Amino acid sequence: MAGSGERNGADMPVGVVTGGVEDAYGEDRATVDQPIITPWAVCIASGRSLLRDPRHNKGLAFTEKERDAHYLRGLLPPAVLSQELQEKRVLQNLRQFKVPLQRYMALIDLQERNERLFYKLLIDNVEELLPIVYTPTEGEACQKYGSIFTRPQGLYISLNDKCAFLDRGRVLETLRNWPEKNIQVIVVTDGERILGLGDLGCQGMGIPVGKLALYTALGGVRPSACLPVTIDVGTNNEDLLKDEFYIGLRQRRVTGQEYSELLDEFMAAVRQNYGQNVLVQFEDFANHNAFTLLEKYRENHLVFNDDIQGTAAVVLAGLIAALKSTGGTLADHTFLFFGAGEAGTGIAELLALAISRQSKVSVEESRKKIWLDDAKGLIVTSRNETLEPFNKRYAHKHEPIKDLLEAVKAIKPTALIGSSGVGQSFTKEVIEAMSSINERPIILALSNPTSKSECTAEQAYSWSQANNAYIFPGFGLGLVIAGAIRVKDDMVLAAAEGLAEQITPEQIDRGQIYPPFSNIRKISANIAARVAAKAYDLGLASQLPRPKDLVKYAESCMYSPIYRSYR
């Protein structure tokens, strides 16, 4: 009987779970306080197994009745604490750590013990804890991942799993080893270009783990629907190859056909195992692979590259918001990008699309307002033979210029955007040159981590630092709630416009171009609604019928970290 505490079959007490219904989107949605009979709806373990189950463990928050029903009496101290008091205690303990990496490790440990408390803590203290679970601290964590590794947090796919001649391969089999079957978002990396830190090989797993934590905390995608993946094809990092604690393959990185075949097998296995609606986000792939993979798979899979598309949406949103202060339209401005890799070129492409939409001109014509500067100087037509294909479209007729300061003086940009990974490259002279050209220059230093940033916000007074976490959680939620089957550039543009709409006139008057991060869940819901609306408009949504109010629907689908009652 429900609530009797009698054991049923495989050591599973029959009980009642209240506090919400688990569905395809959020685990606490719509029907709060309507009970579900276990174990058929939600499997809840008992005794020490329950305390070791991070999804259902509540620690000292288990009530007296719950302790009796689930065989916990004596396994916990007698005190019963609220979730709020638990959160207060954890936060106090975190603040005692002076080293950010120690805080990171403590948070990961909490996530492995008590999932709901981890996400409640992160949601309620997002501005304080974001730099710990995300950049810059996660970059340091990846560098030291082999030394701090305790428990695997994602799925590792390596060359050892690749299909060989007359062998069906083990990638699909490996995916099926993951315990969760209803996956909606995958973040995958091959570790070749982790932030601005270079090739970290298998230790890049910290990036997918961190990104997906934000998908849940900021975008409301339930944790069990998220899958972090690292594809290990070796590393060219000599220090890692010599490190006795390195956790990946000890070989040089493979390229070419062997690399492509493994990625093909992975993408096919994902589709076969999870269907066409699962979002695959490529993260921190090197430039030469990032653009290739996005173009290769975007027509047949639901794929997104945050380094290219997410960064572009955040920056475009900032530029649109800045126009409320500087005046004019995007077409009235001249843009100079310092850095012509994934981020720089991705932003430039979305910006050209936005100018084209606003001004009713071709994208090719819009690109004439945009200049790129890379490690060899200004990208001009005389360099065409040595340029990557994705850079050639921004090669304009101009004399070669190798120095950034001289490029600023010659081009006279109204906006300077840094994505180079070269720390302190926006020197005092560069900032002063921008200020002499423009009454209110737009300066965005985007590179991560902080040591790689072109300048600090204080040095440039660039109004605010752009952060991809403004976009990708809400963007992913929008794709999920619409059941989108493809990502189109107009969806990314809709996300940028959705973010720009969240800035208020008062915030603009204070010199901000992004809304406060404390409102990130509301921001994400609005972005999700804009993205979902565009998916429906383009005929790419499979979740029918279309909800009447997409903002409210997005909010209703968001995961809640509040404890449920097990009685």
What do these coordinates show?
With 567 residues, the protein is α/β, with parallel strands linked by helices. The protein has 25 helices and 15 strands. The strands form 4 sheets. A 5-stranded parallel beta sheet has the order 5-7-6-8-9, sandwiched between helices. A hairpin with a 2-residue loop joins strand 11 (370-374) and strand 12 (377-378). Helix 14 (306-326) crosses helix 22 (489-500). The longest helix has 21 residues, at 306-326. The chain is globular, with a radius of gyration of 25 Å. The chain starts with 6 loop residues before the first strand and ends with a strand. Residues 1-26, 28-41 and 459-464 have low confidence and may be disordered. A divalent metal cation binds at residues 283-284, 307. Keywords: Metal-binding, Oxidoreductase.
List keywords for this structure.
alpha/beta, five-stranded mixed sheet, 567 residues, 43% helix, 25 helices
Task: State the helical fraction.
Answer: 40-55%
Quaternary assembly: single chain
Largest sheet: 5 strands, parallel
**Amount of beta strand:** 5-15%
Total beta strand runs: 15
Poorly predicted runs of 5 or more residues: 1-26, 28-41, 459-464
CA-CA gap between termini: 12 Å
Total helical elements: 25
* Structural class label: alpha/beta
What order do the strands of the largest sheet run in, or round the barrel if closed?
Answer: 5-7-6-8-9
Rg from C-alpha positions? 25 Å
- Mean of pLDDT: 88
Coarse shape: globular
